[in-house]
Amino acid sequence: MEQDTAKTLQQPPSTALLDFNRVSHPLIEIITMPCIHHPATAAACVRKLQALLRAVGACTRGMELGGLRCDVNVSVRKRHEPFTDAGGKGHEYAGVKGLGQRTEIKNLSSLRAVEDAIVAERDRQIRILEAGGVIEGETRGWALGSTETRRLRGKEGEVDYRYMPDPDLAPVLVGEGLLDRMRESMPRLPDELLDVLTGEDGGYGMSIKDAKTLIGMDEGERLEYYFEAVERLGGLLTNEERKMVRGGVGRVVGNWVVHELTGLLTSADVQFDPTRVSAGNLASIIASVVKREVTGTTAKSLLATVFAGDERSVEQIIEEDNLRLRPMGDEEYVAMGKSLVEENPEMVRAIKVKGQKGKIMWFVGQMLKIGEEGRVEAKRAEETMRKLVDIE
Fold first, then answer.
1. Tens of pLDDT, residues 128-184
2. Where are the alpha helices (DSSP H) in the chain?
């Protein structure tokens, strides 16, 4: 633990500005052992630490907004060989011996910067060593978009920092009672949330990829929105309807929150706002699909309408815009499917002879495309095409 002093703003070529606005703010410094051997691993470590700190409320802002900064120490040596300098000795850090001379890269402000700066500094040190040079202990800087680190100042040894004990600062004693109380009051950590979201038995059944994405979205706000939408949807469905949802209610809501809603936010280039499409409205849209009141394609259009600011209820939009599903009969699906099979023999051959069964969804897409809007259901279209092409 330490107190912040000032923020240094470098103004090339020779000016440095000091920002004293954060003087005396408390800082927590977390230091790892010299045991990370790949730039991507270092970035993943910072990402995990950031997720943990956010989860417990110790860090409320992202790296780009100054809530977390990373200093990286980089040294190189030949793989599986201890480093030796001209004197036949290597360097030792925290009890780990045989390491190369390290340099420190200060104030990295994004995960991308962590990875790119390590790659640049690693390559610089390798070039120097292979040319017969010596790595100097120094502090270096990095700017986004750069291809090389730059020297800031020489690195002082521990004895040169001139730290002195302050008699007014008493030791910080952390008792077991405080630890127990913190454990009891601490929110769920990311790993626990991941288990909850991906669990099949009593969990939400999401894929690991979608669950990780959801946990990291919008500093936890999207996750709260997801849980509310799941609860709302559960209240709109009967037990039988919940059993009919492919993959489970949690997985379906996850798809809409992580993919469909994100797609609209990205296209509109706006930040997530839980009031734009309320959790209740999202649940109503999904429920209309589950209850076969609208098709999946119509539901996506319905979501876009609400997202765009239509203040009518979901039920009103369905009724007034004539979006309600008008189911096709089996004979209509078969007739449409047979026509597509006859027109696309090569696609049928790819499925039946070459075993490219995933292409069956191409036929489903064509049925959705050419069918009357609001009538073709993807699930029934797939079932029909599988029967016609004779695949399981």
1. 999 999 888 899 999 877 889 999 888 765 555 566 777 887 888 999 999 999 889
2. 39-55, 111-130, 176-185, 190-198, 208-215, 221-236, 239-244, 249-255, 261-268, 279-290, 296-307, 314-320, 330-343, 345-352, 360-370, 378-389
